[in-house]
Amino acid sequence: MPKILILGANGQLARNTTEFFLKHPVVQLTLYLRRANRLKNPDPSRVTIVEGDVLDVETLKGAMQGQDVVYANLAGSMEQQAKTIVNAMHATGLKRLIFISSMGIYGEVPGERYRSILDPYRDSAAVIEASDLDYTILRPGWFTHDEEINYQITQKGEPFKGHDVSLNSLSDLIVKLALSPGMEVRRSLGVSRAG
Ligand SMILES: NC(=O)c1ccc[n+]([C@@H]2O[C@H](COP(=O)([O-])OP(=O)(O)OC[C@H]3O[C@@H](n4cnc5c(N)ncnc54)[C@H](OP(=O)(O)O)[C@@H]3O)[C@@H](O)[C@H]2O)c1
Question: Which single residue of 69, 94, 100, 127 could bond 82 by disulfide (Cβ 3.0 to 4.6 Å)?
Answer without folding.
Answer: 127
